[in-house]
């Protein structure tokens, strides 16, 4: 691979990751996790504990719970389909869909083409 082709491939990858990062930044679950982490750190500072202290406490609890019986988890037969988030770069509109049968996605596919719309997708875990 030539250096120019490698450069362009990396540039394309960087643009894709920036787009994915912009989706993740607006995720309400991420905001809740940041809020929880901040409150947890404040609480640890208030009681003068560190993360190692909490892990040590948690480790003791885990050893005790090894001996207790718990019922087996039920097996899932089918995996749930993941939600994909599509962001139209021309209008900034976002759509959450599990398949391409979504009405808005269908309109976008007619207007911009199927392959173009597929490139707009990101998956949040």
UniProtKB/TrEMBL annotation:
MvaT DNA-binding domain location: 84-120
Q: Which InterPro entries match?
A: MvaT_DBD
Q: Name one Pfam family in it.
A: MvaT_DBD
Known NCBIfam families for this protein?
silencer_MvaTU
In Swiss-Prot or TrEMBL terms, this protein is called DNA binding protein
Read off the lineage from the record: Bacteria, Pseudomonadati, Pseudomonadota, Gammaproteobacteria, Pseudomonadales
